[in-house]
Design brief:
This protein has about 110 residues and is of the alpha+beta class. It has a domain at about 30-105: Beta-lactamase Inhibitory Protein, Chain:B, domain 1 (2-Layer Sandwich). Helix content is about 25%, strand content about 30%. The chain contains two helices and five strands. The protein has helices spanning about 1-20, 50-60, and strands spanning about 35, 65-70, 75-80, 90-95, 100-105. Strands 1-5-4-3-2 form a five-stranded mixed β-sheet, covered by helices on one side. A hairpin with a 6-residue loop joins strand 3 (about 75-80) and strand 4. The longest helix has 21 residues, at about 1-20.
């Protein structure tokens, strides 16, 4: 009987842990969908599914990085500076499991 109670307790704890891993902050906005931008930043040359290295080779290396989501469902937002001569702007690139899932330009701040 003690063994069965122990199994139930372990199952309960595993359930709590797995619920915590899937929990996301409801205040966080989802990343934008697709590729959106202008010719100024070269963001229109990007394609969904590209690696971070390939993206960096097209629009330049990212200057800032922010991670969000759970451990197994992590999304990374990278901020790339462009248009420095006139007014600093940022391209935001979003990666999930190492693949580009969204990109947009004309941001006045880094990824929030």
């Amino acid at each position: 009987m003690k063994f069965i109670k122990c199994l139930w307790a372990m199952a309960f704890l595993l359930g709590l842990i797995s619920c915590g891993m899937n929990h996301s902050n409801l205040n966080e906005a989802p990343p934008p969908a697709g590729i959106n931008g202008t010719k100024d930043s070269n963001v229109l040359m990007l394609e969904l599914g590209m690696s971070k290295g390939r993206v960096d080779s097209i629009i330049g290396p990212s200057d800032f990085e922010k991670r969000g989501g759970s451990f197994f469902n992590s999304i990374t937002c990278n901020s790339h500076v462009y248009n420095e001569e006139f007014d600093v702007k940022f391209v935001h690139t979003y990666f999930k499991n190492g693949s580009l899932i969204a990109a947009s330009d004309s941001h006045s701040t880094t990824c929030q």
